[in-house]
Write a structure and sequence with these properties.
Blueprint (H helix, E strand, L loop, with lengths): L5 H6 L3 E6 L4 E4 L1 H6 L23 H12 L3 E7 L4 E10 L2 E8 L1 H21 L4 E6 L4 E5 L1 H6 L10 H4 L8 H11 L3 E10 L8 E13 L5 E10 L1 H22 L4 E5 L5 E4 L1 H7 L11 H5 L1 E2 L12 H8 L3 E9 L5 E12 L5 E10 L4 H9 L1
Antiparallel strand pairs: 1-2, 1-5, 3-4, 4-5, 6-7, 6-10, 8-9, 9-10, 11-12, 11-16, 13-14, 14-15, 15-16
Length: 380
């Protein structure tokens, strides 16, 4: 049997427990009582399994029974979910029971797990399809730059540099100030399609670019801001395409708005996306987002004899749904003021240079009006 002086085991920094052959606790020093949060006087009347869960699937259970069965010393770690702590346990068997020496390794275990989590997140972030960087300190020194972010800057390695050292050309564009603000206040910042000029490959040649990004404050164990997580997506191509589309749309509107005929344009599925001023005057209104099934009732379209125009027979519907080119068609429009006017017009599908249909267009004018009179009225 293991014999230990009570004064000796009370003086050590480790917990010490003695159990007999029936797994009842016969002695527990003060340090062990504190570690296991059992400071009552009945501690020596407890079974060991009241302190360490009696679960055959756990390593602690298996190792303790192995120590007794084989009469060998064993070491293992125990995690106590209720206490949220880790103990390193050394079990030394004797013929009358087992002596346990406990050492608190919670800080070490959480450090190991935190490092493992950091490694996992680093690998995860490294392969993410968006640009991710982490900066530390008030000067925003790069601690981590993932592969996607590195590709955006020509493969440069900027880890260890501050943002002002890595991108001096960005000074004055407001980005450094935003990072300072997030670091100071802890409040996140989100920007969509933000314009920036920067030297992508570090040669000093400035490029125009657009980014959607977020700055998120990172906090340490003391809850103080210690860095900034930046997640960015370059949207330069999308913004340029949209701006070009908006420019083309503006040019189209300017051109179609000066035509002497009414013009109605749809997208590929027939939704009305444009009505010029002449068409609006002829109908007495201009409504967008109208689908083919609603053309007749929305714009009050009638046949020559005054009946509601069948949807499938409308020139614009035929151009949208059947890719037909219709010329010289006639129909009536009942305006909101109750007046009926007779119009004539043409409709045709519209194709992109690639051959894909992108919409349809209807042109119309009041029946009997000459081109000259239409132009003269428009100019007046």
């Amino acid at each position: 049997m293991l014999i230990a002086s009570e004064s000796l085991v009370e003086s050590i920094n480790d917990g010490f427990i003695m159990v007999d052959s029936t797994w009842y606790v016969t002695y527990m020093n003060r340090r062990a009582q504190v570690m296991l949060r059992c400071l009552d006087s009945s501690v020596t009347s407890r079974r060991l399994w009241d302190l360490i869960p009696e679960d055959p699937t756990t390593d602690a259970y298996r190792q303790l029974h192995r120590a007794v069965a084989q009469q060998i010393s064993v070491e293992f770690d125990v995690f106590y979910p209720l206490l949220y702590v880790w103990h390193e346990v050394r079990a030394i068997p004797s013929t009358n029971g087992v002596a346990l020496i406990l050492r608190d390794i919670t800080d070490r275990q959480w450090l190991v797990r935190r490092e493992a989590e950091h490694a996992y997140l680093r690998n995860l972030f490294n392969d993410a399809p968006v640009a991710i960087t982490i900066t530390r300190g008030p000067y925003h020194q790069y601690e981590f730059v993932n592969n996607f972010a590195r590709k955006l800057i020509g493969g440069r390695n900027i880890e260890g540099l501050t943002v002002r050292e890595a991108f001096p050309e960005v000074e004055g564009q407001g980005f450094f100030e935003l990072m300072d603000q997030v670091y100071r206040t802890g409040e996140p910042y989100y920007a969509e399609e933000r314009f920036i000029q920067f030297a992508r490959d570090g040669t000093g040649v400035l490029e125009d670019a657009y980014f959607t990004f977020t700055y998120q404050a990172l906090r340490g164990f003391d809850a103080q801001v210690s860095g900034i997580l930046n997640i960015s997506v370059e949207v330069t191509d999308q913004v340029r395409a949209r701006l070009q589309s908006e420019q083309l749309a503006a040019e189209r509107t300017a051109v179609l708005g000066h035509l002497p005929d009414g013009v109605i344009v749809t997208d590929a599925i027939g939704r009305i996306i444009y009505v010029n001023e002449i068409a609006a005057k002829l109908h007495g209104e201009a409504k967008l987002d109208v689908m083919p099934d609603d053309y007749t009732k929305t714009y009050h379209l009638l046949t020559i004899d005054g009946q509601p125009y069948p949807i499938e027979d409308l020139p614009l519907t035929r151009a949208v749904r059947h890719n037909e080119v219709i010329q010289g068609a006639e129909w009536r429009i009942r305006r909101p003021d109750g007046q009926d006017i007779l119009v004539e017009g043409s409709a045709s599908p519209v194709y992109a240079p690639t051959g894909i249909k992108i919409g349809a267009v209807l042109t119309l004018r009041e029946k009997g009006r000459t081109m000259l009179s239409a132009v003269s009225e428009h100019l007046l």
